[in-house]
Amino acid sequence: MSFRLVSGGDLDAAYPSAESRASDAVHWRARYLARVLFTDAAAIAVAVSAAQTIRFGGPDEPSLAWPVPLNVGYTVVSIALGITWLVLLGGTGSRAPHVLGVGVDEFRRVGSATLRLFGLLAIVALVLRVDFARGYLAIALPAGMIGLVAGRLSWRMVLRRWRARGRCLTTVLAVGSPEAAHAMATAFTDDPGSGYRVIGVCVPAGGAQSATGASHLAVLGDDRSVVEAVTRTGAESVAITSTEHLGPAQLRQMAWELDQLGVDLIVAPGVVDIAGVRLTHRVVAGMPMLHIDGPRYSLAKSRRKALFDLVFASAVVALAAPALLAIAIAVKCTSPGPVLYRSERIGRDGVPFKMIKFRSMFVNADQLADQLIAEHGGNPVFFKLKDDPRITPVGAFLRKYSLDELPQFFNVLRGEMSVVGPRPQVQREVDSYDGAMRRRLLVKPGLTGLWQVSGRSDLSLEDSVRLDLSYVENWSMVLDLSLIARTIGVVTSGDGAY
After folding, report:
1. Across the strands, what pairs with 291?
2. Domain boundaries of the chain, sorted by first residue
3. Residue 110 contacts by C-beta under 8 Å, 6 or more apart in sequence?
4. Rounded distance between C-alpha atoms, residue 273 and residue 474, angstroms
5. How many Cβ atoms are within 10 Å of 372's Cβ, its own excluded?
6. What separation in angstroms does the CA of 427 have from each of 65, 343, 344, 346, 402?
7. Which stretches within 262-357 are classed as H helix?
8. Which residues contact 95 (CB under 8 A, 6 or more apart)?
9. Rounded to an integer, what is the distance from CA 49 to the centroid of its chain?
10. Example GO molecular function term (predicted)?
């Protein structure tokens, strides 16, 4: 990473005024909030209306059973319930700017507001002897929760598309060492859906000249002139990474000054590829700390993962049987040779097995591998070649949409592979492993995984290894399900496969 120093005149020309940038941020956040508020209200209205209609069979409704001599129908109850629900969603901070469209905390707060509302209803019913129709509440609660989550997920998908096009981004000023600023800028660039864009850095004096790399970030000052840089650029957030020059007193002073400017302060702990399930926040002696649980290798080898693999693979094989037959016929009729290609891969704990695929290359493809690696200067550990001459026309189509991988579900049924896991390894890859890379062999290889949904063949060797290790160390059932869902989108697009 290289940096370029920006003078005062260049700075004024390169960045809009703070007022202009703040106005843009307020504008898109207000529009996004309005959309979320609308879908929240619609989901709640549909839920309570459906509950009333299903429970009471139409517009005719009984009166609320309570000791007060006042005739109140369930239409009034539905309106009051809906308004209270919306108010509690706001009261729990589910529409706060720092959680809206980011992470799981938004959904946690939606769930908290909903459960608090129905818990409050239970207390009111007990204390005031109000007899709510249980069927009405039993329908309204899950229907409302599903509608709220679905609405927010839909808008979050829209927001990610906007951000992928460079819209609705929060501008960030990175503060720290050149290496830490580089890592942060790279992470945000690789994941535009996160919503952050680094517009410059403040590094220790002399840091701009000490960094090397391919991309450029504007140096807006040193790590003691952060507030001035924020004022000049209109940055909406400041992210502090690894730096030796800012102590507790300086951080507290900076937080006070940034708060007066309405700028968020983010402190990056300096750890990478650690999933949220392994992090616990705690305050010790007045100091915020992160406790990091150990890697989750044993959970990635658990019986529930094996049971899920068996059930999921069985269902896919049963449903995809006609497609498997059609692909087999296409492969057999378009090029001489067997329908299936069996290749030795190294499984869990270094045990070899024969991985099954539909043949996508000509029969002598393996004999040409060393020649192609030498001609194209490829990495023998991770050799991928665009426009590979060994691929058949049908094979190119199968590879584009990963249809050649379907027979690997039989490897899953045989217990040799998992549905989700690290990329299957060949022996020449394993022979080159160092101590860290061998951790990929602690779990079964998978049909899909983090690297497959993060760029497929377009990834470098280093990124592929990093993502596989991250999966092994941070495994959870939720992660597996999310990767399967993401795989469907990646495969149907056909991007990054060759």
Report:
1. 280
2. 2-20+165-292, 22-163, 299-493
3. 89, 92, 94, 145, 148, 149, 152
4. 8
5. 15
6. 73, 11, 8, 6, 23
7. 303-319, 321-334
8. 33, 36, 37, 40, 89
9. 34
10. phosphotransferase activity, for other substituted phosphate groups
Dihedral sign (CA 199, 205, 209, 212): negative
Structure tokens at 300: 């990635």
The secondary structure of the chain in percent helix, strand, coil, rounded to multiples of 5, reads: 55, 15, 30
CA–CA distance, 202 with 240 (Å, rounded to integer) = 9
**Which helix or strand (DSSP H or E) is residue 121 part of?**
helix 105-127
pLDDT value at residue 372: 58
Non-local (6+) Cβ contacts of 458 within 8 A are 495, 496
DSSP characters over 254-279: HHHHHHHHT-EEEE--S--S--GGGE
C-alpha 138: how far from chain center: 32
Strands 446-448 and 418-420, how do they pair? parallel
Task: Report which listed range, 146-150, 187-191, 250-254, is most confident.
Answer: 146-150
Phi-psi category of residue 228: left, alpha or beta, with phi > 0 → left and psi -120 to 50 → alpha = alpha
d(CA 332, CA 255): 67
Determine phi and psi for 170, rounding to 5 degrees: -95, 125
**CATH T-level assignment (fold) for domain 2-20+165-292:** Rossmann fold (3.40.50)
Q: Judge contact between 397 and 358, C-beta under 8 A.
A: no
Which helix (H) or strand (E) element contains residue 361?
none
Q: What tokens appear for 472 in the block?
A: 């092994």
Distances (CA, A) of 253 to 222, 224, 285: 16, 11, 20
Q: Could you please report the per-residue DSSP string of 361-390?
A: B-TTGGGGHHHHHHHHT--TTS---TT-TT
Report the residue count for the chain.
498
Stretch (H or E) spanning 141: helix 134-164
DSSP 300: G
At 175, which helix (H) or strand (E)?
strand 170-175
How does 205-215 read in b/e, with b if 16+ C-beta sit within 10 Å?
Answer: eebbeebeeee
The residue among 225, 414, 181, 227 whose CA lies nearest residue 309 is 414
Residues in a beta bridge with 43: none
pLDDT at 213: 41
What is the spatial distance between Cα 20 and Cα 22, in angstroms, rounded to a whole number? 5
Q: Name the residue type at position 255.
A: A
Report the C-alpha gap between 156 and 164 in whole angstroms: 12
Supply the pTM of this predicted model. 0.62
pLDDT digits (tens, 9 = 90+) for 27-60: 788 888 999 999 999 999 999 999 888 888 766 6
**pLDDT, tens digit, for every residue of 247-303?**
777 888 888 888 888 888 888 776 666 766 677 777 776 667 777 777 777 777 788
**Which pLDDT tens digit goes with each residue over 49-107?**
998 888 887 666 677 776 666 677 778 888 888 999 999 999 888 888 878 887 778 88
Rounded distance between C-alpha atoms, residue 228 and residue 258, angstroms: 10
HSE of 36, CA atoms in CB hemisphere, 13 A: 27
